[in-house]
Specification:
Oligomer: single chain
Number of helices: 19
Number of domains: 2
C-alpha cells in the first residue's frame, strides 16, 4: 500500500514537472527564436490595423448620429404642411414634463444671400430663438464672437436683435486648401458688422391675396430681409457651416407669414440625461396629441434624431462590416505565417522533440508546448497591436496634419466627410474582441505543427541519429 502511494505521488510530481517543462520550453522558444519576432509583428500590425479601422469607423458613425442630436435635439416634432401657430403653450407643456430638459421652436426656409456685389450664395434659413436654443444645445459654443457669453443674442452694439443674424462660416469663407482650416480671425474682422440681404419667400397658396404675388404666373411670394451679421457659426459639421443662416424667429415669421403671427414648422426637444430617446419620443407624442387636440389636430411627425439618421447610419455600418471583413481576410495571413514558422521549427527540432518525449513527456504535453507557444505569440502580438492601435487612433488628427504638411496630401476634408476633425475615440469593445481573435488565431496557426510534433516517434527517429 505504501509502495502504491509512493508511485502515485511520484506520477503526480512527474505530471506537474512535465507541465512546467512545457511552459518553460515555450518561454525559451519565445525568447530565443528571432524568427518568432516576425510572427509577433504580424499579429501586432494586424491587430493595430483592425482596431484603428473599427475605432475610426465607429467614431464616425457615432459622431454622425450624435451630431443630429446635438444640433436638432433628441426628438423633433415636424409639422406636415401646416405651420404651428401659438406654439408657446406647446413649449410650456413640453418643458414642464420631468423627462424633458428643454424645447425650442424653429421655422425653416430657403433663400439667396447677397453678401457683396456679384457674390450670391444659396442658403438654408432657420428662424430660431437663440436664448432657448443655447440653453437646450451647445449652440452658444459654436459662435465665434459670443463663444464665452452666457446669454448670446442677435444684438450687437447699436444693432438691435431684430436687425441681426448669424451665418455659417462656410457661407462667407473657404477653408485653406492644404490645412482645411478656417481663418477665424480674418472671417470675424471682415464679416461681423457687415450688412447683407437675404431673398426668400413662400408658396403663393399660403398667401392671403393675389396682390402678394410677384406676378400672375408666379407661384412664389418673394421677400427680402436685410440684416447685419452679428456672429459667425462654426459647428464643425460641414453641411451646417456651409449652408445655414440663422435669423430671429419673429423676424422670419413676420416676413413670410405676416398674417399668422409667430409660427414654426419644427419643435426640437432635448430630453433629460437619463431618458432614452424612444421613451422621450412617446412623451413628446403624447404632449403633442394633447396640444394638437386643442388646435384642430395639426398633422405632424414625431421622430428621434437617431431615426432621422437611421438610413445613412445603417449604410455606414454595412460599409464598416465589409471593410472589417476585407481587412480581416488580409490579416489572416498572420495565421499562415505562424503556421509556416512553427512547422519549420518542428521539422528542424524533431530530434529535440524525440529526446523530450523519450524522457517521459507525453504527446499531449508536446502538442501543448507549441500551442502555448502560439498563444504566447498571440498574447504578446495582441498587446503590442492594441497599444499601437490606441496610440494611432488617439493621435490620428496630428498624424493627418503631419502628412498634409510634409507630403501636401490632405487625407481628411470636411467637405467630403462632414466633420472638421477625425473622430478619435477608441472603441474598447473592438479592442477586446480583436485582441481575443488575434490570440485564438495564433493558437490555430500553431495547431497543425503541434499535432505534427505530437506524432513524432522517438524510437524511430533516434535509432538513425
Amino acid at each position: 500500500m505504501g509502495s502504491l502511494t509512493v508511485e502515485v505521488g511520484t506520477e503526480d510530481k512527474r505530471t506537474r514537472a512535465m507541465k512546467y517543462l512545457s511552459v518553460f520550453l515555450s518561454l525559451r522558444y519565445l525568447r530565443s527564436k528571432k524568427i518568432v519576432i516576425l510572427s509577433i509583428l504580424a499579429v501586432a500590425m494586424s491587430c493595430a490595423l483592425l482596431i484603428t479601422v473599427a475605432s475610426l469607423f465607429t467614431g464616425f458613425i457615432d459622431t454622425f448620429e450624435n451630431g443630429a442630436s446635438e444640433h436638432m435635439g433628441d426628438v423633433v416634432i415636424s409639422s406636415l404642411g401646416q405651420k404651428i401657430q401659438d406654439y408657446d403653450g406647446l413649449l410650456d407643456m413640453l418643458r414642464a414634463h420631468p423627462d424633458i430638459q428643454g424645447a425650442t421652436a424653429v421655422l425653416s426656409g430657403q433663400g439667396l444671400l447677397l453678401i457683396g456685389k456679384g457674390d450670391v450664395r444659396a442658403a438654408q434659413v432657420w428662424g430660431i430663438d437663440v436664448a432657448s436654443r443655447s440653453r437646450m444645445t451647445s449652440f452658444g459654443d459654436f459662435l465665434l464672437r459670443q463663444q464665452d457669453v452666457d446669454e448670446p443674442s442677435f444684438a450687437m452694439g447699436d444693432v438691435d436683435a431684430a436687425s441681426g443674424g448669424f451665418v455659417g462660416i462656410g457661407i462667407v469663407s473657404d477653408p485653406d486648401e492644404i490645412t482645411d482650416e478656417y481663418d477665424n480671425a480674418t472671417v470675424m474682422d471682415e464679416y461681423i458688422g457687415k450688412r447683407v440681404m437675404l431673398t426668400t419667400g413662400r408658396a403663393r397658396a399660403e398667401s392671403q391675396g393675389t396682390e402678394d404675388t410677384v406676378s400672375s404666373n408666379s407661384s412664389f411670394k418673394r421677400e427680402t430681409i436685410k440684416f447685419t451679421i452679428t456672429d459667425i457659426v462654426f459647428t464643425g459639421v460641414h453641411d451646417m457651416d456651409e449652408n445655414y443662416i440663422y435669423l430671429p424667429l419673429e423676424v422670419l415669421s413676420q416676413s413670410l407669414y405676416p398674417d399668422q403671427g409667430n409660427v414654426a414648422d419644427m419643435i426640437q426637444v432635448r430630453l433629460a440625461p437619463a431618458v432614452e430617446q424612444e421613451q422621450g419620443k412617446i412623451v413628446a407624442q403624447t404632449i403633442w396629441n394633447r396640444w394638437s387636440a386643442q388646435h384642430a389636430y395639426i398633422p405632424a411627425s414625431v421622430k428621434t434624431s437617431q431615426e432621422m439618421q437611421a438610413v445613412l447610419a445603417r449604410e455606414y455600418r454595412k460599409q464598416m462590416r465589409m471593410l472589417m471583413l476585407i481587412f480581416g481576410v488580409v490579416s489572416a495571413g498572420a495565421i499562415l505565417l505562424i503556421f509556416c514558422i512553427f512547422y519549420l521549427i518542428v521539422m528542424t527540432k524533431r530530434k529535440d522533440v524525440a529526446v523530450v518525449k523519450s524522457c517521459g513527456m507525453g504527446s499531449w504535453s508536446v502538442a501543448s508546448l507549441y500551442i502555448i507557444f502560439g498563444l504566447g505569440i498571440g498574447i504578446v502580438g495582441a498587446a503590442l497591436g492594441a497599444v499601437l492601435g490606441i496610440i494611432v487612433t488617439h493621435n490620428v488628427n496630428p498624424i493627418e496634419r503631419w502628412i498634409s504638411v510634409v507630403f501636401g496630401l490632405k487625407l481628411w476634408k470636411s467637405s467630403t466627410y462632414m466633420f472638421s476633425r477625425i473622430p478619435n475615440e477608441v472603441d474598447l469593445s473592438a479592442v477586446f474582441w480583436i485582441s481575443l481573435a488575434a490570440i485564438l488565431a495564433a493558437g490555430i496557426g500553431a495547431l497543425i505543427p503541434a499535432i505534427a510534433a505530437a506524432r513524432v516517434r522517438p524510437v524511430r527517429l533516434l535509432r538513425y541519429e
